Amino acid sequence: MLTKNDTIKEYAKELKLSNLCRKAEDFIEDGEKKDLSYQDFLLNILNEEIVAKEEKRRQGRLKNSGLPIIKTIEEFDFEFQKSITKKQINRLLEMDWIDKIYNLVFLGPPGVGKTHISIALGYKAIDMGYKVSFISMDNLMYALKTQDIYRKSKIRIGKIHSSDLVIIDEIGYLPINREEANMFFQLISSLHEQASVIITSNKGFGDWNELLGDPALTTAILDRLTFKCELFNMTGQSYRLTHRKSFLED
User: Fold this and answer.
1) What whole-number distance in Å separates Cα of residue 67 and Cα of residue 59?
2) What is the pLDDT averaged over residues 161-182?
3) What is the Cα 233 distance to its own chain's centre?
4) Of 165, 184, 188, whose CA–CA distance to 174 is shortest?
5) Domain residue spans of the chain
6) Are 182 and 217 in contact (CB under 8 A)?
7) Which CATH number among 3.20.20.70, 2.40.50.100, 3.40.50.300, 3.30.390.30 corresponds to the domain 73-237?
8) Higher pLDDT, 200 or 38
9) Antiparallel, parallel or unpaired: β 165-171 and 103-107
10) What is the dihedral of CA 106, 120, 245, 139, to 10 degrees?
11) Which of 23-32, 114-123, 158-167, 200-209 is least confident?
12) 219 closest CA partner among 175, 198, 189
C-alpha cells in the first residue's frame, strides 16, 4: 500500500513536477520545522519547481551550444590585454546587442583573447536565456558539406539556424576552397538580421579576399557581417606563450 509521501511523488511525477518528486520529504520536513502556513508551504514548492525547471533549460541550452569549455569574463586578464577595456566588455554583457541583432567581430593574432571573450559572452548569453551555437570554422565547413549525408551534421546546422547567437571561431587559420566560401556566404546570408554572429579571425578584412578567393563574394559577406556590427582589433603578445608552463620546470 502506498504511503501519502509515495502518493505525492506519484502525483508529482504524473504532473512532471520533477523537483517535488525528488524532494517531497525535504519540503514536508522544512514546512513542519518552520511551521509554515499553507500558502508559504505551497509557494516554496512552486518557487523551487520554477527554479529547477529554469536550471534544466539552462543546462539544455549549454549542452546544445557546443561551447568547448567554460570561460568567464572574470577570468580574463585585462591587465595583460589592454587593447580592449573592461568597460567595453561590461557593455557587451548587457546583451542588448543580441536583441538588436548586432554582430561582433574580434580580429587579432593568436593568443590575444578573442576566443576567450567570445566563449564568455556566449556563456553569459546562455545564462540570460538566449540560444547559442559555437563552432570553429573548420567544423562549420565539415557540417555544411556533410549535412545531407550525416544526421549529426544536419542537426548541428539546424541548431545554428535556430540560435539567437552564433559564434564562428578561428576564421582564417585553415584555407577554404571556392565551394566552401559559397556555403559560408549562404549561411551568413541566412543568418543576416535573423541572429547575432560573433566572428573571431587572425586575419584583417583586407586579407579576406585571399582567404575566400573571390573579391565579389568577400564583399558580399563583409557587407552582411558589418552592416550592424562592433569591430574589435585586438593586439599584443600571445597570453599562452607569455604564460607558458613546462612540466620540466616543476
Assistant:
1) 12
2) 93
3) 21
4) 184
5) 4-65, 73-237
6) yes
7) 3.40.50.300
8) 200
9) unpaired
10) -70
11) 23-32
12) 189
- Output the CA torsion sign for 225, 229, 235, 240: negative
- For residue 78, CA distances in Å to 12, 83, 112, 122 come to 48, 9, 11, 19
pLDDT of residue 111: 86
One-letter identity of residue 47? N
Report the C-alpha gap between 199 and 227 in whole angstroms: 14
**Average pLDDT for 221-244:** 83
Report the mean per-residue pLDDT for the chain. Answer: 91
Q: 199 near 229, Cβ under 8 Å? A: no
Q: Which residue's entry shows cell 549542452?
A: 63
Residue 141, C-alpha cell as written in the block = 565547413
Which pLDDT does position 143 carry in this prediction? Answer: 97
Would you state the torsion angle of the CA atoms of residues 188, 111, 94, 83, taken in this order, to the nearest 10 degrees? -110
Q: Kindly provide the residue ranges of all beta strands, DSSP E only, lying in 123-223, ordered along the sequence.
A: 132-136, 165-171, 196-201
| pLDDT greater than 90 at residue 1 | no
Q: What is the pTM of this model?
A: 0.90
Which grid cell is 102? 548586432
Residue 131's Cβ-side half-sphere holds a number of Cα atoms within 13 Å equal to 10
Cα 165 to chain centroid, rounded: 7
